[in-house]
Each structure stands twice: as C-alpha cells, then as structure tokens.
Design goal:
Radius of gyration: 11 Å
Order of helices and strands: EHE
Number of domains: 1
Strand content: 5-15%
Oligomer: single chain
Low-confidence stretches: none
Helix content: 25-40%
Distance between the termini: 35 Å
Number of helices: 1
Length: 49
C-alpha cells in the first residue's frame, strides 16, 4: 500500500522564494508522515511565475 498526501495550500503571492520554501516545507512534512506521493494544487503555480 502507498500512502498519498493531498495538500491544500495557497501561494505567497508575488514572492517566489517564499512560495518555493512553503512547497518544500509541506513536502518534507508529508514525507515525514510516510507519504510516498504528494499531490500539490495547481493553484500554487501563480506564486511561482
């Protein structure tokens, strides 16, 4: 069985570095909880443009 995490999060608008850090933090948190697949919302994309 594979554990999957589904993340609901918003970007930090107009701040790419903080948004990337937020994604990294959320990913690490899910991985520490044993998730092997982590689904992030496409709504994080505007913060990375």
């Amino acid at each position: 069985m594979v554990k999957v995490a589904v993340v609901q999060a918003a970007p930090i608008l107009f701040d790419r570095e903080k948004t990337v850090q937020k994604v990294c933090d959320l990913t690490l948190e899910a991985a520490k909880e044993g998730s092997k697949i982590i689904l992030l919302p496409e709504s994080l994309h505007p913060g990375l443009s």
